[in-house]
Amino acid sequence: MLFLRAHRLKKRAGWALLPLVFLLLFSGPAFGEGEAQGELPLLPGGGIGKTRDMSLPEAVFLVVRGNTSIENAYLDRVAQKYGLEVEEHKFKPDISFDSSLVRSGSDDDYNYAGSDDITDTNDTQLQASVTLTEKIPTGAQFSFVWQVNKTTGDTAGSYYSDDESVRNSWNIQFQQPLLRGGGIDANMASVRQARITEQQNILSLKATLIDTITTTIYDYRSFLESARQVAIVLRSLKRAYELLEENRALIAAGRMAQSDLVQSQSNLANQRIAYQQTLNDVQQSRLELLRTLNMNKNTKVNPTEVLSLPENLPSSQQCLALAYANQPAYLQAKLVLDYSKQDLILAKNNMLWDLNLLVNYSRDNTKSDSYGDSDNNYWDAGLYLSIPVYGQTRMSRQSQLLSARSNLFKAQNSLRQTNENLQIDVDNRLRDLHIKKEQVTLSREALRLSRLQLENEQEKLKYGRSSNFQVVSYQLDLANAENTLLTAEVDYLNSLVSLDQTLGTTLDTWRIAFKTQRKAAQKKVWGQ
Predict the structure, then answer these.
(1) Taking the model in full, what pTM does it have?
(2) Distance between CA atoms of 410 and 336, rounded to whole angstroms?
(3) Smallest Cα–Cα separation from 90: which of 141, 129, 146?
(4) Spatial CA neighbour of 44 closest among 20, 24, 23
(5) For 61-107, how does the pLDDT look when each residue is reduced to its tens digit (9 = 90+)?
(6) Alpha-carbon distance values, 376 to 165, 168, 454, 496 (Å)
(7) Are 450 and 475 in contact (CB under 8 A)?
(8) Does residue 132 contact residue 171 with C-beta atoms inside 8 Å?
(9) Average pLDDT, the chain
(10) Which of 181, 95, 99, 97 is nearest to 133 (CA)?
């Protein structure tokens, strides 16, 4: 808010240029009467090229599309989504293939009793295997391994032979934990936690969008308010110039002393100083908006929003219902509680003994030129028990159980506190909204009376029934009343934005389709 104060200024120069300045700059009706944004004065400096008109919905669209924080959040979502797919694959088969090809040889020379024995050996070994494993929600795991090993031998020299053998084998194994590591609840816990984490990541993305959009709206309206304050100061400057001209006419007519001119000259000088300050403010707010929008700092922007104030406000019950369904922080607290419950299930299961049922069946078939053919079958089944009676292993598991219980209680406390905070925040936002609405009504009435007061005092001055000091004071009061109404209206609209943020309904209000993934981000991360 810009408050104007009158003070004396000895410098008296440059008056001849003022009429031309006013012809170029002064335009637009008084604020508070539905003035169109296009009637604001063109702001000097701050950018190059053609001025770009920008509405508030357009600014919101631009920030959703181009803001760096939002883009980074969507890049993170690619890896996060794939992390869920990895955990969801827990009960699907894993297949691997391994192979090797080895060529080996030797050259042996042996002399015994004057007789040479020369043997050259060359072997080729090919090995290949396929492994398939699959886990089911009970904790059981099936595994199948098939392996083939082919060896070709070539021996030359004093002793000649060729040998080829092929070994073909496979193995099936089934293992079922009966205590620790067994059961659907324990084995599905990690999958449920991954799903909960995915929901948390989505809520974090939504919160990033809401916070960034909210910041954009604040920045846009701060820029708009600064631009309209320039218009208010220009109108004050125009009134100060007109008063100076009226004073000169009264002095020429002998109805005012020359010394009384100092008051109006000082007022005009103050308005010129205020005008320079408002120009600085508007350029600062313009750059802040461009930073949020991730746009070039030299872009010229003209905010075109017409401040439209809604009359009907939601009830506390309606707001709470919306907050419980949409507020990211509250929903996050509920998910943390669900995650902690799964942690406790895992910790309790981890305290059990290791008792496993293991069944194994193998078959081996070998064909060899030298040793003939052979078939072998093997099976075994048994129970295997392991008990950590005493020591670090048992203590570590106990520590995990204590931590899981502690985290569960803390999550319950956090959810309760978040619920209470949400109710308080909703009440505060609504109360603030009603107060801001009342301030707008009072500011409009104050502006109307300030205008009427100034008009009456200007009329009195014409007939010598008032003083320059009184007229200047009322002019300053009018400028302050215009600024007060402007601030009140912006604050009221920003309070609605703050309520939207608290309720988590910002995206719905601005009709933004919430997408948990972006194709452009996926292509970048996957290298497509």
Answers:
(1) 0.81
(2) 10
(3) 141
(4) 24
(5) 999 998 999 999 999 999 999 999 999 999 999 999 999 988 876 65
(6) 16, 11, 112, 80
(7) no
(8) no
(9) 84
(10) 95
pLDDT of 17 above 90? no
Dist CA 4 CA 473 (whole Å) = 10
The amino acid occupying position 98 is D
Helix axes 468-503, 261-293, angle to 10 degrees: 20
* Neighbour tally for 507: CB within 10 Å: 18
- In the chain, what percentage of residues exceed pLDDT 90? 58
Buried b (16+ CB within 10 A) or exposed e, 311-321: eeeeeeeebbe
Q: How far is CA 179 from the centre of its chain?
A: 43
For residue range 426-452, what is the model confidence (pLDDT) as tens digits? 999 999 999 999 999 999 999 999 999
Q: Quickly tell me which residue has 């509680």 as its tokens.
A: 337
Separation of alpha carbons 395 and 482, rounded Å: 72
Q: Return the SS3 of 519.
A: helix
Please, are residues 355 and 384 in contact by the beta-carbon 8 Å criterion? yes
Three-state SS annotation for 343-394:
HHHHHHHHCCCEEEEEEEEEEEEEEECCCEEEEEEEEEEEEEEECCCCCHHH
179: Cβ contacts below 8 Å, ≥ 6 apart: 352, 353, 354, 355
Question: Tokens representing 145?
Answer: 């391994």
